[in-house]
Amino acid sequence: MNQSFYGFLLFIFLVVPPVANFMESVMVIHMHMQMPMLVIAGFLMARFFKNRFPGFFEKWNSNGVPGILLFVIIMVYWMLPRTMDEALTTQSVEVYKFISLPFLAGVSLRDSWKKLSSFGKNSIIISFTIMFLGLGWLYIWSPVQLCNNYLVIQQVTLGWAFLTTAIGLVVYLGYNFFIDPSAYE
Amino acid sequence: MAAAIPKKIMETTNKAMGISPEDAKITKSYIFVAFMALLIGGFLGLIQGLNRAGLLELPSWLNYYQVLTAHGLLLILVLTAFFTIGYFYASLSHTLGGLLPKVRRIAWVGFWLKMVGFVLAVIPILMNEASVMYTFYPPMAAHPVFYLGLVFIVLGVWACCIGSFIQVANWRKNNKGQHVPILAYFATGVFVLLFFALIPVAIEVLVMILPWTLGWVETINVMVARTLFWAFGHTLVNIWYLTAVSAWYVVVPKIIGGRRWSDLLTRVVIIALVVMNITGGFHHQIIDPGINELVKFMHVFMSLAIGFPSLMTAFALFAVFERTARRKGGKGLIGWWRKMPWGDVRFLAPFIAMVAFIPAGAGGIAQSTNQLDQVVHNTMWIVGHFHLTLGMTVVMTFFGISYWLVPYISKRVLTPQINKLGVIQTWIWTVGMIFMAGAMHWVGLLGSPRRTSYTTYGDHATALGWDPYLMCLAVGGTLLIIGVILQVYAVINMMFFAPKGETEFPIAEEEDNATKTPYWTERWGIWVVVMLIVVAMAYVIPLTEFIVNAPPGSPPYKTW
């Protein structure tokens, strides 16, 4: 309950217009801080829903695959330049962002992650790494401005953020692959 | 059973250094070099102080900027790096049951790489070909050999980092499921930080500065170079600090006869400092051009976040002091203070170091604030600040450590005479630093610039008004050189002449009713990934801006 409450507080904090306006004013903060923080808020709030509707998650997400699929779809959707633009210009899409990221992506990630096998987990991380490399390439070397709302320099910055995040993921995968924690723990 | 195992480990490890003179020799060599650097660097500091006060005109073959560069390099790089590595290698050897032969070899390779690098860097300084000061900011360009020396120093430190990782990994393999002993944990944190902090400065020197000074490329991107420098520079500052903090948490409680307060809190402080540190570098550039206000604001937030673990440290340490003193019969709100071992230099020096960190940290917070920093950034205030932080908080802790570490590695004892000398040295150093750093802060507020030799600006009234403070600075500097001589004398005495005997490596135990530390504190892989993500968050926006919207760049300049 405590955790869910903090998640809710974080969600409210992110929704407050000055905070939302500030975070959306910089492209990389919009995509790489606001959006993940919304997912984290949902991730924290998930415990409330799992306690409230245990049967629902058991019935529809018994092996974690449907949940993680929903998570991936929501994440991919919000990584498109077009959708970010829309969130800034159309009120209803903005509302959808604040609902979909915590409640559809965050909650389902929390419920699914532990249910996945290590193969499933690694596949998800690897596919996100590849996706981030591709998006980094797209945003850095795109010859045109992809978002009406952001300057090209912001787009390039976002591209580098994608690439550095991908590097972070590769480091993590390498660590996971080469280091066997059971040898140390 | 549970109590029996640690006791057995303690017994075997207590012998470890004793039975391994090879390990002691490594630390001895590192510490010896560190204090020789202090001796030479101290005299160079005195020359600078006297020059700034207008009391000493330097000869034509030795200019102020040359002295400043050597003083900075010796004390900021050599003293601190050699002391930190020597101290932590002794800690690793002591708490992890002796160094592996492989690790010992790596430590020696690191030692000689650093020495070679250091000699290479000093030659151009002596020839007045590298008076670029210790920050070596482009577009000031030194002789390429100076930078080549820096590369060797970086390689040497990297070797020591890798050696420590191998040592810790090996211990963990043999002691599955156990927490790494606390001093070795500190060492891991420090070497993780060193390893990653050296990457940006290696890129700066190898990829940007060397080709530029060799004439292979014509211009350099000054802002990128400065940013890479401070990603390293600020982390280095906190590496010294973390080293000092390790002694506060682990050694000082033992010396005053107390226990460590909270193992979990200690480890969380280390993790927090490691994760958040590198990003703090930007506050050194807070009045640099080309960074927009939003980014500067974000970095002020990130810098101040580093202050939080320091507040946790202050809380934990004063909790230890009060508990211990009360257990010894100390009474009253502040009466328990009298129960502290004020006559023991191993306590007194680190204690004054901690107290100095209160104004030093507060000054640091003031400087991280854009508007306040604009008043003091290019003035003597900053010089005062880092003499308070490095010269007092860090170095006095190092001095305090030396009074047990040096006898320990030399198989000698701390005699009452040397202890008394140490207490006198501590007070001389304290008074000297209060005079010098205090004067620097004040004269900085009045506008006296840093990084310049003495001038009255054509007898301008404002500049003449600085003179009394600069005189205070020289008085403080003179006291400090007395402190340096006493300290180096004490170290040489304890290393080679003190009576033979056994000295304890003081490591405080946890409280009896301490709660078990959760195992996630041992998962360094995760903390390193979190650290890399935080670094990316901090640096991607400004670096992209600097590189994509780069100005034409600058050719090398020799300004001296």
Secondary structural class of chain B: mainly alpha
Summed up, the domain count of chain A is 1
Give the class-level CATH name of chain B: Mainly Alpha
The biggest beta sheet of chain A reads: none
* Average pLDDT taken over every residue of chain B: 90
Number of continuous helical runs of chain B: 16
Radius of gyration of chain A: 17 Å
> Could you give the order of the helices and strands of chain A?
HHHHHHHHH
The low-confidence parts of chain A are none
Quaternary structure type: heterodimer
Overall 3D form of chain B: globular
Tell me the major beta sheet of chain B. Answer: none
From the 3D coordinates, which CATH architecture of chain B would you assign?
Answer: Up-down Bundle
Total beta strand runs of chain A: 0
Helix percentage range of chain B: over 70%
Given as residue ranges, the uncertain stretches of chain B (5+ residues, pLDDT < 50) are: 1-5
The end-to-end distance of chain A, rounded to whole angstroms, is 31 Å
Number of strands of chain B: 0
Compute the CA-based radius of gyration of chain B: 23 Å
Helical segment count of chain A: 9
Q: Which helices and strands, and how do they pair?
A:
The complex is a heterodimer of chains A (185) and B (560).
Chain A: H1 2-15, H2 17-25, H3 27-52, H4 54-60, H5 65-78, H6 81-89, H7 91-113, H8 118-141, H9 152-178
Chain B: H1 4-19, H2 21-52, H3 64-95, H4 101-126, H5 144-174, H6 182-213, H7 222-255, H8 263-276, H9 293-327, H10 345-367, H11 370-376, H12 380-410, H13 416-445, H14 461-465, H15 467-497, H16 524-548
Explain what the structure shows.
The complex is a heterodimer of chains A (185) and B (560). With 185 residues, chain A is mainly alpha-helical. Chain A has one domain (2-183). Chain A is built from nine helices and no strands. In chain A, α1 runs antiparallel to α3. Chain B is mainly alpha-helical and 560 residues long. Chain B has helices at residues 4-19, 21-52, 64-95, 101-126, 144-174, 182-213, 222-255, 263-276, 293-327, 345-367, 370-376, 380-410, 416-445, 461-465, 467-497, 524-548. The longest helix of chain B is centred in the middle third of the chain and has 35 residues, at 293-327. Chain B is globular. Chains A and B meet through α3 and α9 of A and α5 and α16 of B.
